[in-house]
Specification:
The protein is an alpha/beta fold. It is 44% helix and 16% strand. The chain starts with 5 loop residues before the first strand and ends in a 9-residue tail after the last helix.
């Protein structure tokens, strides 16, 4: 059976779910938190050590101000209410991306990272204001004065330094594209596109993905 140490998820479909059920995109974002909680519990049970969630991309700044503010407020409320529990469960929070939010949210994100830094049961990488192209430019700028740059040099210069590449990438929402997410890191990741919108994504869906993954022959270029 193929081991899974790192699962990455593009949580697509919150807005469409909200419009479909209550004519409110914001409702979908709130409902999506239930799926986040489910995946966290799942990873702990399956002893998956790293979970990367694409929460807000560099392109998401193009969304209406009202929706962006709702998303940031939702994150702030969630962390204030759940951080103590997250820490007690030995879950680490790490932010990948540039913290370019309000002073209050930036401070809260810094606090969450520092408070949970020693936890080892599960590391949740929250991709916030994240874009893979921007991450690569960040890495290249760090390396521009170095000669003979290696693949390992690039790995050490990314936001995901010291985080293993994901074995599995899941995208919900019936959309088959990567949307500027972990483009360097997923070179040999198994990708699963799911039709369900993120709030409808359930434990049984993850079980099906894990079962499919267990049967994949991972050659990494070999025969």
């Amino acid at each position: 059976m193929n081991p899974v140490n790192h699962m990455a998820i593009i949580m697509d479909g919150n807005g469409r779910w909200g419009l479909k059920h209550r004519n409110s995109r914001n409702l979908g974002h709130k409902e999506g938190l239930k799926s986040v909680e489910m995946v966290m519990r799942y990873c702990i049970k399956k002893r998956i050590k790293f979970l990367t969630l694409y929460a807000f991309s560099t392109e998401n700044w193009k969304r209406p101000l009202k929706e962006r503010n709702y998303l940031f407020n939702l994150l702030e409320i969630y962390l204030k209410e759940k951080l103590e529990k997250i820490n007690n469960e030995k879950i680490r929070i790490k932010i990948i991306g540039e913290k370019n939010f309000s002073k209050g949210l930036n401070k809260l994100l810094d606090f969450a990272e520092k408070k949970t830094i020693k936890n080892t049961k599960l590391q949740i990488n929250l991709a916030l204001n994240y874009g893979s192209k921007k991450e690569l430019i960040y890495a290249f700028n760090k390396l521009k004065k170095r000669k003979g740059v290696t693949e390992n040099d690039v790995n050490k210069s990314l936001y995901t330094k010291n985080i293993p590449d994901p074995e599995i990438l899941v995208r919900t929402g019936n959309t088959q594209r990567l949307s500027n997410f972990l483009l360097w890191q997923i070179a040999y990741t198994e990708i699963f596109f799911e039709k369900k919108l993120w709030p409808d994504f359930k434990r049984e869906d993850l079980n099906k993905i894990m079962k499919k993954f267990s049967k994949v022959k991972r050659n990494f270029g070999k025969i």
